Every structure is written in structure tokens, then in C-alpha cells.
């Protein structure tokens, strides 16, 4: 008996169920084809399949002038923000777990605040508001990176906190028993074990970061959406075609990150390094931890 | 706070948050309806539907919402001529709702599917043993139990939806983040109070909502 949901919700089909499934497959298959055909016709009516709209993507210069520089800006902003988010997340998760209220309360307030404020609102404040205070312009790159760091750092702080608390109590007790101090227990015992368990979550948070860099388009950061869709679309008059190509790039990039996160999760589970997951006894499959559940921009 | 004693500025603030409220409400309805259907597809015995559900989730979950909303405007509306209302604001609003719904539905679908996975296999087996069909098993036995397990993830999805509504500002709706941008540009001397009022409104509404969902999830959880 496989432990797959699909195999549990219904019996292995007998002859009647097989015919019924076949009929349903044909019916829904045709409905799906009709839907695709309708979309194709709609595009055709507006001339969106015309050669000149798609030909630019066959030329190297389109890629080197628009799409690749945009993709590079997207990836570099996401990478820099990731490094800062990890530091931010680590500092604030440990801060929130502190025994001193004057550390844990402010850390909690900061984390809750930045998690509740929309990222776009944050970026607008950094990009349009901060220059009024400092009287010097804010580079869009840093507006994007700072915004991403504050938001994703807070999300990671909560994830780390849950990870640190999921390390079995015996671990820290053993640490205290051999005379370690609170800081040492946190640094030498809890954080390394939690970090290993959190690795899949960290990688899937990268997906969120890559997607959120697209907000930079709104404040004029020349990332993939700005360069590869907006500018390219304006120059060749093929915004729809450019958007479709950009979707493929984003999906390929993020799907491979998700796949990598899943691989890491399987590996940590196999080697048994991860703290025990809280799977209800007899559950069909463990609740997926590697998928980013929250739909950030 | 002087900025907000000016009635026009206060009106900008109010209208901005009203749009967020309307976007969140319509987006919630749209994404839940779509998400439940997609989740049912993904666990159904029919491969075509499973493939469609999987494709939808992988496509929309991996695409930035900004690009989806951008496509709704420049693709569906400008290029393909889909007009949802004569009024320009209404039209942008509905285009935004479409974008938010198709995007969020992918996450709702995944939350429900992992909720289904928390229901012990014995429940489905018992339902089948007394002769229930797939749809009966799903709607009478599995989904009611799964619903309790998905309260917490759905809560965070709706909170994220409320925050994501600000992205509809990209296509010209004067929602709260665009409203804040306008007020900041007009009142350079009161940047921090303006930000604190806008961000504070979000925090004041969304943080308690988060705790409410946490409490509710705890209360409704099936004790196994």
C-alpha cells in the first residue's frame, strides 16, 4: 500500500471505474483543449502570433541587451538581499528568544512590524521618503535590497525561532550540564542544528526573494520585468510576447530552486540530522516543509 | 499628524485603504473558489485534471505577482482587449482581482492539499470500506477534517493577500501604497508620520488578524 493520497482516496479502478475515468478523461481533455484553442484564437485575433513580435527573441542582441542584464539585476538583488536577510533573521530570532525582556520585546516588535507591512509600501518609503530625510537620492538597487531584507529577514527570523525551538530539549540541557553558558549553548548547539533543519526553508525563501525583486520595477530598478518586458516590449511593440518569455524564465529559475529545496529536505531527512518533524501518527505524508506556503509578491 | 487633518489628504488615505479592503475581499472569494477546485483536481483520479492542477500551481506560484498584474493590464486589457468595466478605476480593480485570484489560488490549492495529507489514511480507507465514492469520500469525510488543519496556513495566505493588494497600484489604482507615495511627494517635511500612519494601519489590522487565525487554528485543531 503506497502512502500516496491519490492511492488512498479511491480504490484501484475496476472495469466500470476504468471506463468512467476514461470518459471523464476524454471529456475534460476536450474541454481543456477547447480552452487552449479559445486562448489561441483570442491571441490570433489580435495578431499576437505575428512573426515580427516573436522574431526578436531569436536574435542574440535582444538577450544580451535586455533580458540577460535584467536577469542579472534580478539575481544580484535577490542574492545580496538573501545574505542580509540571513544575518537579520539570525540576529532577531536569537534576540526574540532572549531571556531579557528588554531584548526579546523590541526584537519581537520589529519582526512583527516588518512582517505586517506590505513590501511595496516599505519600498516606496525607502525610495521616495528616505531621500527627504537624508537629502541625497536613494539608489533603486539599495531601496530594493533594504526592503527585501527587512521583510524576508523578519520572515526568516520567525522560521529560525521555530527551528531553534524544535531542537530537542535534551540538547540544551546536555550543554548546560557540561557547564556551557547560555550564549555557548545557543551558538554551539542550538543554531547549528536548527540551521541544518532550516536549510530547505532558507532555499525556498530564495524563491520568494527572486519573485519580490519584481517589485523593483515599480520604483524603477532595471530588473527582468523592467528591462526584459517593459523596455523590450516598448521597443519592439511585443509586450505580451516579452511577458510570456519572462514568465518562462521566472518559472524555470524558481522551479529549479524549489527542486533544490526538496532535494535538501530529502537529504536531511534521510541522514536523520533534522530534529524530528511533527507528523501526526498515521498521516498520509509528512506535511511539506520545503514549499513556500505564503504567497509573497 | 497635521498632514491628515487636511480633508483631501485624509480622503486619499481613506480611499486607498477602501481599495485594499475591496481587493482583499474579492480576491479572497476568487482564490478560495478557484483553490478548492484546483485542490480537488490535484487529488482526483483523472490524470488530465491532475496535470492541469499541477501545471497551474507551478506556473503561478513561481511567477512574480507584479508580472501577473502587469500582464492582466498590458496583456489582457491593452493587447487582447478584455474590458471588465466602462469605468477606468472599476476596470483596473477587476483586472487586479483577476491577477490576485489566479495567483493566490495556487497557494490556497497547496494549503488544502497539505491539509488533506494531515488526515490519517484510515479515514479515507474507512469511507471507501463503507462504499463511498471519490467525491463522497472527499466532501463528507476528508475535506471537513482537512479544513480544520488549513485554518492557520489559509490565515497567513489571506494576510499575504491583503498586503499583496498594494501591487495593484502598479496598474493605476490609487490604493494605499500609491496614496502614501503621493502624500510623501506632496509633503516632504512629514515623511515619517505619513509612513507610520500607513504602515501602522496595516500592522494594527494584520497583526491581530494573525493572532486570531492562530487562536482559531488551535481551537479547531483535531486532537489526535
TrEMBL record, chain A:
Residues 71-257 form the ABC transmembrane type-1 domain. It is found in: Cell membrane. Residues 277-286 have a biased composition (Low complexity). Its main location: membrane. One of its GO terms (molecular function) is transmembrane transporter activity. One of its GO terms (biological process) is amino acid transport. This is Glutamate transport system permease protein. It comes from Pseudosporangium ferrugineum.
Automatic annotation (TrEMBL), chain B:
GO terms for cellular component: ATP-binding cassette (ABC) transporter complex. It is a multi-pass membrane protein. Residues 17-208 form the ABC transmembrane type-1 domain. The chain crosses the membrane at residues 20-43, 63-82, 94-114, 126-143, 194-217. The keyword S-adenosyl-L-methionine does not apply. The keyword Ion transport does not apply. It comes from the Bacteria. GO terms for biological process: amino acid transport. Its main location: membrane. One of its GO terms (molecular function) is transmembrane transporter activity. Keywords: Amino-acid transport, Cell membrane, Membrane, Transmembrane, Transmembrane helix, Transport. It is found in: Cell membrane. InterPro entries: AA_ABC_transptr_permease_3TM, ArtM/GltK/GlnP/TcyL/YhdX-like, MetI-like, MetI-like_sf. Belongs to the binding-protein-dependent transport system permease family. HisMQ subfamily. PANTHER family: AMINO-ACID ABC TRANSPORTER PERMEASE PROTEIN YHDX-RELATED, MEMBRANE COMPONENT OF AMINO ACID ABC TRANSPORTER. This is Amino acid ABC transporter membrane protein 1 (PAAT family). It comes from Pseudosporangium ferrugineum.
